[in-house]
Amino acid sequence: MTETCVILDIGGVLEITPETGWVRRWEKRLELPPGTVHERMRDVWRAGSVGTISEREVQEQVAVRLGLDAHQREAFMADLWAEYLGTPNEDLIDYVRGLQGHCRLGILSNSFVGARERETTLYHFDELVEQIVYSHEIGIEKPDLRAFEAACASLNVRPENCLFIDDVAVNVEAAQVAGMQAHLFEDNARTITRIAAHLDAGPLVPRCVPLA
What is the annotated signal peptide range for this record (predicted)? Predict the structure, then answer.
């Protein structure tokens, strides 16, 4: 198999994740001022994204900080995951599935504790690509350069042979700083065209420097 590689983000790329307004609905239901939920939960959201808190502890903190009973807590978390998981970007997923065996495939995602289990059950990303690197499992989020290094290391590929695709410009820029090729996801058509061009170009061959 060629060492040419494609690494993709999940949310906003492989998943279609529009805002659902669930947070504001809960603030209205609980008669809280706008912004209160994120203000009270900011450190918990951060901890969940880098894996320093368990899913059970997230649920406990949600209940304590927002004053929710057990039923409300379950409904709140269901709304959180409904927006987080969105719906599958079927056309892009089908295209990537067709690349299996033609290039190395990976995922690099800023994530939240519990994401792997849910995305595996719903979307089977573990069957789509060879390696999935989640921020909550490595303790590092994009655009930290170490996240891109971890993704390349997981596939044992050189960054210059990798095309990274993300819907956030700062992450695309960071991937380029890390030595990768990168593409800002805006729609499927342009993304598929960019992937095809990357594969047509093939892997870069290291230059041999003659000894003096």
Answer: none
Per-residue H/E/C for 97-155? HCCECCEEEEEEECCCCCHHHHHHHHHCHHHHCCEEEEHHHHCCCCCCHHHHHHHHHHH
pLDDT at 209: 44
Q: Where are the domains of the chain?
A: 5-16+87-201, 22-85
Would the pTM of this model clear 0.85, i.e. be above it? yes
Alpha carbon distance 128, 113 (integer Å): 21
Q: Which of 168, 170, 169, 147 is nearest to 159 (CA)?
A: 147
Query: At CA 30, angle to CA 28 and CA 31, rounded to 5?
Result: 60
